[in-house]
Amino acid sequence: MQQIINFIIRYKITLLYIFLMSIALGFTIQSHSFHKSKFFNSANRISGGVYNISSSVSSYFDLGEQNKKLVEENRRLRGLLYNKKGESLFKMDTSNINYTLTSAKIIKNSYASPRNYLTIDKGRNDSIKQDMGVITSNGIIGIVDYTSSKYGKVQSILNTKSNINAKIKNTDYFGSLVWNTERYDVVQLIDIPRLVPLHVGDTIVTGAMSSIFPENIPIGTIRKYDLNASKTLYNIDVQLFNDMANLKNAYIIINTNRAEILELESKLENVQ
Amino acid sequence: MFSNFYFINILRFVLLVLVQVLVFNKLNFLGYINPFVYILFLYWYPIKENKGAFIVIAFLLGLFVDIFSDTLALHTAATVTIAFLRPSLMRFVFGVNYEFQSFRISSATKAQQITFLALLIIIHHIVFFSLEILSFSNALLILKKIIVTFCGTFLMCILLSLLFKVEK
């Protein structure tokens, strides 16, 4: 007993180090497997608050440019609206609405690490929940990963864990959108079969296979493509429409039918 | 004197964390270089203080940076490691001088100070980026990151430590 106590006293620093290190490693590894890390994220009250203050100051610096972007988007949407035939302009049937949108401000952005997360200033109080899509006027950004009462953490498409269903515009060939961490303006589209005719510059949009994003939201254009190791599938480099380094305003897509879709899918799984 | 010591270190802790997350995490020089200047806290921290307390403080420092930058617990693991290795590094760099009661980092030669700082930074970066590797196979890219980020961090730390010299 005496010896054990002596041992502990002599090596107390080392033991403390091992203890704290295992806590740190534990958190890291646990967050790798379950993607809901409750403590280690910037969507909590303290860091969310700090980022909110910082962003409320720094957002003044490029108000002009953001304004221009919003006007440009308005112009495009109005163009679409006025050229739409057959329906009266402001008729809306609420029973047909599948998606609703919430606007949010991005208060923290990162794109340099292999697992990038953004923080938005909307959370549970604004009925934002996990697995909702986040887009800007140019294209998709990511998926809501975790929400606190006032802030939300968004898993960026520039994240090695990100895997989004995407397809080539005007076709039905779809693949998965992943990121190889090399460039922040280029993501990869994989699992496109070899027989698909591809051209550099073709547009990539979101596919219909997910209940997170609506179909046909723009992502980017084909930068270059080559066959994978087995020579059966394409690896496509996609140049993003979004400038991931400069994001300010975003929209969160709420799929009102998602609960129903998930319920159906889980029923199917149970049957199988 | 005693409260002064706490005041300075708490102020340093808060300011370095804020500078790290609000300025240097957004730097993204050449796309991915974000210097980790908060390591300076562990460089500046008094030598003769309780080692256990020092490791706990390093743990908290890393934890705060982690929470702000959504990096799981990578910073925490790196800071705890350099806090644990710091006494041995000091003995290695400063030699016998380190044992004397009156020894201060500021009294060592410039070359020794710089070596010590560089060792702290390189160990921190190796732990940090190799923990990042664990989940993917981009070893070469991460090695490049270690080297390039080391240069950035080292330069920034030298500049900051020249700017805010610890007068004693």
From TrEMBL, chain A:
- Any one cellular component term from GO for this entry? plasma membrane
TM stretches of this protein: 12-29
| Record-annotated Rod shape-determining protein MreC beta-barrel core domain positions | 106-253
Q: Which Pfam families is this protein grouped with? A: MreC
- GO BP: any one term: regulation of cell shape
Q: Which superkingdom?
A: Bacteria
Entry keywords, A to Z = Cell shape, Membrane, Transmembrane, Transmembrane helix
Q: Which NCBIfam families match?
A: PRK13922.9-3
The family note in this entry says: Belongs to the MreC family.
Q: What is this protein called?
A: Cell shape-determining protein MreC
**Origin species:** Saonia flava
Q: What is the lineage of its organism?
A: Bacteria, Pseudomonadati, Bacteroidota, Flavobacteriia, Flavobacteriales
Automatic annotation (TrEMBL), chain B:
Q: Which UniProt keywords apply?
A: Membrane, Transmembrane, Transmembrane helix
Query: Which spans are transmembrane here?
Result: 6-24, 29-47, 53-85, 114-134, 146-164
Q: What is this protein called?
A: Rod shape-determining protein MreD
Annotated source species: Saonia flava
